[in-house]
């Protein structure tokens, strides 16, 4: 290790979550942290990483390669046997790959998707329960594509045994799934673990797991590896407890905390799904994330991707890169062409971010008003999706301190050919019912009227404009209308959908 490396490690090890105050008018306590909020060593590692930087996720892509089939623990929310090509959730893959196939696939993806900056191993089992395949894949990738950042996800059980190898392979980003620090709660989430050639169950299993997870986290952060903690929010089991988890991981140097909702549809066949354990509502999830904010950087834009996901977050192009298709592709990894393409992205990115002058225009005006707006986007930080084609809406909180992404809501696509599906519109309205406005590139007359009746303003005047700048412009007008008495500010919170509206669209 050279002196430069050890200095960088010290800076990263000393950085403990959200400690700096915002310098750019935006909150620095999130994956929204900008260049001015972070030490340059950390900024360099996160600026083009779609998961560690919310802003980067509009522009850069990631891919997972499913080279790690075995797992060493059983979680009540996981069933790796179930695969549906349309489904996005961790632990699911359509094909398992060898390290050599994984490298060919990465080269094929990077050639066709030059925004690709990150390769992760996230299963479908546990990356570290398959160390041979995992590290062989990283070794081959580092050689073939030196500009690709390496990521690994683990449940943490075997982590302390692999920390030195992780450092040696320059795997700069590690995600550990930590759902509890109290073994009694853990026993309700994990039926068993397999550790040191022996199966453990109940509280004993959860105790071993939590000790190993926290130990591994501490060892990694001491070595300067950026660590993200994933926690699955399971109402009635660990929801309130996650505030304790948040404090525990922050004190051990975690960089980012990603609290995700439990996915528990019965058809997935998980123990929780079959038992009828519900996941949290979008509002419950946001309330918990808000309660943890300020302690540590919070991630709000996770899409709970498949273990073979490819593309920008929110899109999955894995179907274009099946092993059969990849093996037939002629791939040329052109580092220079990738650099040129990414330099263009950086120009576009800089143009879409609100300037400090634009943010300053808001400061001081009616600072108590804080509202949510949904945005239909296909990426690049722009309002560039038709209302009827949106598969998800990004939800932004807008206030005089700026515009902040606080989540996303998946929906069923409204437009089916030439017509809109009326029952789908009701479910879309339910999904964004706490929002004051929905920003779209285009919207038809019928959904427009129904949204207005539901108290949600459809906004298409900023079509193809920057999300951040448009939201600021709209919010400024909104405040002026309130000042002039043209409209009243009504808090939406979990606003009820008018009964007659539900009937009219049912
Ligand atoms: S699961 Fe979340 S953290 Fe992992 S790649 Fe997808 S968006 Fe990023």
Number of DSSP E strands: 18
CATH fold group of the largest domain: TIM Barrel
The ligands bound in this entry are: iron/sulfur cluster
What portion of residues belong to β-strands?
A: 15-25%
> Largest beta sheet, briefly?
8 strands, mixed
Number of domains: 2
- CA gyration radius, whole angstroms: 23 Å
Count of alpha/pi helices: 17
Instruction: Report the span from N to C terminus.
Output: 65 Å
Entry summary:
This protein is 36% helix and 16% strand. It has 506 residues and is α/β, with parallel strands linked by helices. The protein folds into 2 domains: 16-325, Aldolase class I (TIM Barrel), CATH 3.20.20; 355-505, 2-Layer Sandwich (Nucleotidyltransferase, domain 5), CATH 3.30.420.
Description:
There is one protein chain. The chain is an alpha/beta fold and 506 residues long. It has 2 domains: 310 residues, Alpha-Beta Barrel (TIM Barrel), CATH 3.20.20.70; 151 residues, 2-Layer Sandwich (Nucleotidyltransferase, domain 5). The chain is 36% helix and 16% strand. It is built from 17 helices and 18 strands. The protein has an 8-stranded mixed β-sheet with strand order 10-9-8-5-4-3-1-11. Helix 3 runs parallel beside helix 4 and helix 6 crosses helix 7. The longest helix has 21 residues.
């Amino acid at each position: 290790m050279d002196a430069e490396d050890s200095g960088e490690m010290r800076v990263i090890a000393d950085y403990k979550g959200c400690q700096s105050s915002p310098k750019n008018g935006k909150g620095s306590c999130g994956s929204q942290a900008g260049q001015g909020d972070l030490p340059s060593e950390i900024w360099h590692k996160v600026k083009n990483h779609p998961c560690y930087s919310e802003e980067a996720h509009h522009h850069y892509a990631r891919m997972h390669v499913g080279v790690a089939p075995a797992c060493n623990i059983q979680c009540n929310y996981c069933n790796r046997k179930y695969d549906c090509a349309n489904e996005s959730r961790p632990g699911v893959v359509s094909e398992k790959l060898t390290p050599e196939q994984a490298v060919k696939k990465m080269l094929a993806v990077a050639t066709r998707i030059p925004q690709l900056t990150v390769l992760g191993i996230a299963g479908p089992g546990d990356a570290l329960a398959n160390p041979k395949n995992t590290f062989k894949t990283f070794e081959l990738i580092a050689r073939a594509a030196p500009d690709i950042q390496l990521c690994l996800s683990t449940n943490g059980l075997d982590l302390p045994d692999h920390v030195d190898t992780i450092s040696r392979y320059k795997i700069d980003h590690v995600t550990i799934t930590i759902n509890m620090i109290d073994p009694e709660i853990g026993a309700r989430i994990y039926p068993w673990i397999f550790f040191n050639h022996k199966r453990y169950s109940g509280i004993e299993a959860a105790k071993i797991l939590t000790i190993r997870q926290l130990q591994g986290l501490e060892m990694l952060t001491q070595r300067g590896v950026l660590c993200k903690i994933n926690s699955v929010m399971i109402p009635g089991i660990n929801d309130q407890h996650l505030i304790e988890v948040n404090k525990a991981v922050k004190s051990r140097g975690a960089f980012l905390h990603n609290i995700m909702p439990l996915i528990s549809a019965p058809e997935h066949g998980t123990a929780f799904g079959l038992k009828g354990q519900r996941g949290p509502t979008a509002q419950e999830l946001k309330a918990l994330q808000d309660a943890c904010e300020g302690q540590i950087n919070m991630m709000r834009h996770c899409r709970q991707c498949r273990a073979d996901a490819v593309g920008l977050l929110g899109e999955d192009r894995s179907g274009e890169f099946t092993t059969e298709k990849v093996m037939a592709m002629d791939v040329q990894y052109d580092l220079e062409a990738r650099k040129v393409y990414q330099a263009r992205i950086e120009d576009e990115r800089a143009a879409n971010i609100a300037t400090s002058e634009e943010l300053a225009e808001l400061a001081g005006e009616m600072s108590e008003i804080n509202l949510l707006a949904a945005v239909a986007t296909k990426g690049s930080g722009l309002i560039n999706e038709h209302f009827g084609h949106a598969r998800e809406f990004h939800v932004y909180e807008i206030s005089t301190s700026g515009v902040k992404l606080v989540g996303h809501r998946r929906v069923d696509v409204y437009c089916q050919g030439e017509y809109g599906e009326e029952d789908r519109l009701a479910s879309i309205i339910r999904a964004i019912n706490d929002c004051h406005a929905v920003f779209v590139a285009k919207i038809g007359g019928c959904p427009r009227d129904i949204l207005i009746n539901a108290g949600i303003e459809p906004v298409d005047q900023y079509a193809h404009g920057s999300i951040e700048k448009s939201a600021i412009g709209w919010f400024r007008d909104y405040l002026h209308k309130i000042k002039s008495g043209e409209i009243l500010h009504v808090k939406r919170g979990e606003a009820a959908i008018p009964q007659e509206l539900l009937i009219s669209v049912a």
